[in-house]
Specification:
The chain is 18% helix and 31% strand. It starts with 16 loop residues before the first strand and ends with a helix. The chain is α+β, with helices and mostly antiparallel strands. The protein contains four helices and twelve strands, in the order βαββββαββββαβββα. β10 and β11 form a beta hairpin.
Length: 225
């Protein structure tokens, strides 16, 4: 039996405590399987994206792509693992994305698509942008992040850049919605009583900004199911 979680560096404060149960705890397992068409229908119903509630002074604009494809009737999301030699967020699980470069990117969407092409070799032409999600901000790295949902017709052939990506993984949404995967904690670090989210996979832990984006995205997908 595989053990959930990985070796990510998580600066958990000694006062960390359990948070709320999963928003999808009421759903039976069979209702947690989503096709790509399910995702497309649900994101079409999203309200206009909201900006972050709190932006740290000096924050820089960034964008990420949430790429999804279908295999065996189930939507899977693509994630990357950052190398250990990176100056920040070493070894963390992330979406493809990065800083907006005003001299290169006409829009934040251009930044998300450019970074996905540079980091994992995902061609811009292969991505159907289905939605823009709510923006989030980070405290330590001071980014204001705009996430975009990108749908792919088939499993892509990806070529990760080893300077920015240690490995690429893809995960069925049902694995993320499993009761044993999700956990919320409340931290008093930077902001009092802040909700921090975790998705513990077979050999990795998704947390931080990536988990915040995933939690909100998944909650919308299963709303009303």
């Amino acid at each position: 039996m595989s053990v959930r979680g990985g070796r990510q560096r998580i600066p958990r404060p000694p006062t960390a405590r359990a948070g709320a149960p999963p928003p999808w705890a009421h759903l039976p397992p069979e209702r947690r399987h989503l096709s790509l068409d399910d995702v497309r229908r649900r994101v079409a119903e999203l309200s206009p994206p909201r900006p972050p509630q709190l932006v740290v002074p000096g924050s820089r604009a960034a964008a990420v792509l949430v790429p999804l494809f279908e295999e065996d009737g189930e939507a899977r999301v693509i994630l990357t693992k950052r190398p250990e030699h990176m100056p920040s967020h070493r070894g963390e699980i992330a979406f493809p994305g990065g800083k907006v470069q005003p001299d290169v990117d006409a829009t934040v969407l251009d930044a998300a698509l450019r970074e996905a092409a540079e980091e994992i070799g995902l061609p811009r032409s292969a991505v159907e942008i289905a939605a823009e999600l709510d923006g989030i901000s980070t405290i330590a790295s001071r980014f204001t992040i705009t996430p975009f949902v990108g749908l792919l017709e088939t499993r892509p052939e990806l070529v990760p850049d080893p300077r920015e990506v240690a490995k690429v993984l893809d995960v069925p949404l049902s694995d993320l919605l499993d009761d044993g995967a999700y956990r919320e904690e409340r931290w008093d670090l930077g902001i009092p009583d802040r909700a921090v989210y975790f998705f513990e996979l077979a050999d990795e832990t998704v947390w931080g900004a990536t988990a915040r984006i995933l939690a909100g995205f998944l909650e919308h997908l299963v709303e009303g199911r």
